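Handout for the seminar on molecular recognition.
Each group receives one record of this type.
Step one: identify the two inputs.
Step two: read the structure output and locate the region that could contact 6-O-phosphono-alpha-D-glucopyranose.
Step three: write two sentences on what you found, then compare them with the reference statements printed after the record.
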Amino acid sequence: MTERKKQRIAIAGGGSTYTAGIVKMLLENYKEFPIESIVLYDNNEKRQETIAKACEIITRDMRPEVKFSYTTDPKIAFTDVDFIMAQLRVGLLPMREKDEKIPLKHGVVGQETCGPGGIAYGLRTIGPLIELIDYMEKYSPNAWLLNYSNPAAIAAEACRRLRPKSRVINICDMPVCLEEIFARVLGMKSRKEFDVRYYGLNHFGWWTSITDKEGNDLMPRLKEYTSKNGYEEYTPQGQHKESSWLVTMRAAKELHEMDPKTLPNTYLKYYLMAPETVEHENPNYTRANEVMDRREKDIFAECQRIIDADSSEGTSIQSSEHSQFIVDLACALAFNTRERFLLIVPNNGSISNFRDDAMVEIPCIVGKDSVEPMSIGEIPDFQKGLMEQQVASEKLAVSAWIDQSYQTLWQSLIMNKTVPSAKIAKEILDDLIEVNKDYWPELK
Ligand code: G6P
Ligand code: MN
């Protein structure tokens, strides 16, 4: 093997609670994915500083040969880089809290990526995401943007509409996390021991086949497990083991009953089990509160501890599932590994009976500077009907941002399966407009 060229990485959203884990993951994968430099970028200087100073120490302790820096200046951040990894959270967790609580107040699912909350978040994210793409094209035209900013479905549709030729890849970690669960259920070391067939939209999809490397069908064992337990498992600990996530993992049992031929993405519960979900929620304490009280506090405290000790020895910061696939993806694009990933790409005939201009989540082979979506063929009416409604809602949200149209945004909410009526859609929308004034375009 020829020696691999060292890569220059920018992480946009440097102040994110995931950044330290991603930096650690990059450093741990140094042999397969050698790095020349890591630069963190965020527009929130203070928030980024704590994370960045800790990452600087982690980098020095693990790989002193890697240059580490951080900045709030886009020109410095994005000049001469090979990859930008983006995890924007526009409005931070206090706005996520509003995305969740406002719909709930009207008896509708309150979720950061699904339903009215997801649409609200989408309208906050499009502008900064497009700005980021433009920085990349200006300062590093040959770089790739690996975008896992939420809401990924709306973000991906905005990329398709507004920057169709840009080198952007939209990806979500949920299928990866669920496949890690499948692997443990099957007694395998990792999801890399099997191949999957999957299709849908982001946070809205189904596995249709899972086979081992000899082609043996692993679905029967997984279906049997899911019909009893959903995707709940009893070990190990982690993000998706927190109580609110456990409820979601259990819901896979009911979702699987609706279509026993497939295994569902857990996010379908927000659309297909909406009333039960609302009933279960505490409208005064949602997932955003949980994350603020736990992950956010813990990460910032741990970063401060590293800074005070000037050492990362014994740190609890772990490289997570949230980051391994991103390194794998970068590796595929840089070094032609031709690994398979579930990516959010324009359909263009992959699902033969679904609109070409939809952004779908499907397996793709990724090689040196190339993405080859796999062909899915025809999908059944159950999935097709649900997807058509959902993709229309996502498209209307992006159109509303582009046209600054109240009417179109209202239609986006009406179209969403989580919302029971046009009247409720309007009430929620009016509340969302109020709190998103600093982030949304003015609607006419
Ligand atoms: C999954 C999804 C992500 C989402 C995350 C939220 O991993 O794929 O899109 O951001 O869950 O997790 P949290 O712990 O913040 O609720
Ligand atoms: Mn996701």
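Reference statements: Residues 113, 150, 172-174, 177, 239, 287, 291 surround 6-O-phosphono-alpha-D-glucopyranose (ligand 1) (CB under 6 Å). The chain has a mean pLDDT of 96.
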